[in-house]
């Protein structure tokens, strides 16, 4: 079974860049047919899709975040990453790294989640 | 405001059957399969139903899903106290090129 472990700073200052990394175990990020992504959950709220990336580097971003978002894959480390620039308090959320492609779902496996607070 | 519409709350007594609805549009539920996720307090969501009515290995058959047109439902039979959680529906959206979610339904076992 695939295991996802997200990591990164829990506190980011406004206007700075939020950076998170997800380490994959129990499977290879290079395996075809799977894609890797991020879904966030604002405190006490519902879920919001952030974006997907394939091992090839092809990306799909939520249009509402596209101008500030960059996702990448490091196959040598079996990791994928998210960078969200010019953050505001509206970006305060739990960020879950996810993977899909094992079933016909939008996210088969989820990491434990990383709470990122945007505050000065 | 979430793209898919779910009731904010639902409740039932142990052993009872409860259903949670999810309403969308032609660009999401109407043209793509629906997933359901269970989120226990303080934990990450867990896949409960995919492809409208399929259960991943390990999910009890007390959980079932259905879809008709632009609406979907999750049914939980033989309700247990450990079923108390938030439940979310999700579907890919053709306009977004990614998934949209319901606002979540908080299930209380009385």
Overall description:
The complex is a heterodimer of chains A (120) and B (110). Chain A is an all-beta fold. Chain A contains no helices and 11 strands. In chain A, strands 2, 4, 5, 6, 9, 10 and 11 form a 7-stranded mixed β-sheet that branches. Helix content of chain B is 0%, strand content 45%. Chain B has no helices and 9 strands. The model of chain B has no long low-confidence stretch (mean pLDDT 96). Chains A and B meet through strand 5 and strand 10 of A and strand 7 and strand 8 of B.
Write the layout of secondary structure elements.
The complex is a heterodimer of chains A (120) and B (110).
Chain A: E1 3-7, E2 11-12, E3 18-25, E4 35-41, E5 47-54, E6 59-61, E7 69-74, E8 79-84, E9 93-100, E10 109-110, E11 114-118
Parallel strand pairs in A: 2-11
Antiparallel strand pairs in A: 1-3, 3-8, 4-5, 4-9, 5-6, 7-8, 9-10, 9-11
Chain B: E1 9-12, E2 18-23, E3 34-39, E4 46-49, E5 63-68, E6 71-76, E7 85-93, E8 98-101, E9 105-109
Parallel strand pairs in B: 1-9
Antiparallel strand pairs in B: 2-6, 3-4, 3-7, 5-6, 7-8, 7-9
What's the shape of chain B?
globular
Structural class by helix and strand composition of chain B: mainly beta
Please identify the oligomeric state: heterodimer
Backbone structural class of chain A: mainly beta
What's the quick description here?
The complex is a heterodimer of chains A (120) and B (110). Chain A has no helices and eleven strands.
Q: Keyphrases for this structure?
A:
heterodimer, A: 120 residues, mainly beta, seven-stranded mixed β-sheet, four-stranded antiparallel β-sheet, 11 strands, B: 110 residues, 0% helix, 45% strand
């Amino acid at each position: 079974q695939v295991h996802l472990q997200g990591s990164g700073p829990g506190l980011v200052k406004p206007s700075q860049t939020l950076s998170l990394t997800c380490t994959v175990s129990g499977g290879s990020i290079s395996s075809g047919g799977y894609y890797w992504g991020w879904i966030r959950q604002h405190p006490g709220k519902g879920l919001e899709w952030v974006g997907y990336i394939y091992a090839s580097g092809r990306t799909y971003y939520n249009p509402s975040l596209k101008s500030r978002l960059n996702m990448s894959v490091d196959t040598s480390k079996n990791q994928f990453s998210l960078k969200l620039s010019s953050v505001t308090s509206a970006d305060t959320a739990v960020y879950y790294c996810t993977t899909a492609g094992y079933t016909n779902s939008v996210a088969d496996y989820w990491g434990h989640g990383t709470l990122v607070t945007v505050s000065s | 405001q979430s793209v898919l519409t779910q009731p904010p709350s639902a409740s039932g007594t142990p052993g009872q059957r409860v259903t949670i609805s999810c309403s969308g549009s032609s660009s999401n539920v109407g043209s793509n399969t629906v997933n359901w996720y269970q989120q226990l307090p303080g934990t990450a969501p867990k896949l409960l139903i995919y492809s409208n009515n399929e259960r991943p290995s390990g999910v009890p058959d007390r959980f079932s899903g259905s879809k008709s047109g632009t609406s979907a439902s999750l049914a939980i039979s033989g309700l247990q106290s450990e079923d108390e959680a938030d439940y979310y529906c999700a579907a890919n959206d053709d306009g977004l090129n990614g998934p949209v979610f319901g606002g979540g339904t908080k299930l209380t076992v009385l």
